[in-house]
Amino acid sequence: MSGVALIVAGVNRTDRLYALTEELRAVTPRPRSARWLADRFEVSARTIERDISALQQSGVPVRAEPGRTGGYCLDKERTLPPVNFTPGEAMALAVHSGGLLNTGGALPGYAVFGVLVENVADAIQRVEAAGGSVRRAPEVTSAGITFAHLLDPAGNQFEVFSMPPGGE
């Protein structure tokens, strides 16, 4: 068993998908069989197969290793480990990056992190296709930077932006 001890019995599907991804990340590159994962998460092997399919469809790089000792594993070349910040580090990053939104007290302060994309409209289409939505419609700054605020399917807000043609 991996060094990560998670209590996974009786959890909802979203939590199980996350725990499944983290279990595979913890043991990569060693594969885990559907039966082993089913026992670990106290669900059927068929449920694990459906969960793996859902993860693959959402872009998680899970691959199947064939053979007697095969199973499912994450493609380590295509994943990054989770980013863990202390609350102080997160606040410092948000303030330093200018990511804190001043809502005049209407909402608690929060950070919006931006992701540079080639085309904001294409990014919006991909987010909407995955079940997300637009929180703030695309705008273009006086410097020609196009940006939009989006919500992922779980309701987390982030910004996508693109530089003007020829801009850096």
Element string (H = helix, E = strand):
HHHEEHEHEEE
- The fraction of residues in strands falls at 15-25%
Number of strands: 6
How much helix is in the residues? Answer: 25-40%
Radius of gyration: 20 Å
Shape: elongated
Broad structural category: alpha+beta
Contiguous low-pLDDT stretches (5 residues minimum) are 1-8, 95-102
Major β-sheet profile: 4 strands, mixed
Give the end-to-end Cα distance, rounded to a whole number of Å.
47 Å
Mean of residue pLDDT values? 77
Assembly state of the chains shown: single chain
Strand ordering within the main sheet: 3-6-5-4
Descriptive notes:
By secondary structure, the protein is of the alpha+beta class. It has helices at residues 13-27, 34-41, 45-57, 87-96, 120-129, and strands at 62-65, 71-74, 114-116, 133-140, 146-151, 157-162. The strands form 2 sheets. A 4-stranded mixed sheet has the order 3-6-5-4, covered by helices on one side. A two-stranded antiparallel sheet has the order 1-2. Strand 5 and strand 6 form a beta hairpin. Helix 1 (13-27) crosses helix 3 (45-57) and helix 2 (34-41) crosses helix 3 (45-57).
Notable characteristics:
two-stranded antiparallel ribbon; alpha+beta; 168 residues; elongated; four-stranded mixed sheet; 5 helices; single chain
Brief digest:
With about 170 residues, the protein is α+β, with helices and mostly antiparallel strands. Helix content is about 35%, strand content about 20%.
Task: Produce the secondary structure layout.
Elements: H1 13-27, H2 34-41, H3 45-57, E1 62-65, E2 71-74, H4 87-96, E3 114-116, H5 120-129, E4 133-140, E5 146-151, E6 157-162
Parallel strand pairs: 3-6
Antiparallel strand pairs: 1-2, 4-5, 5-6
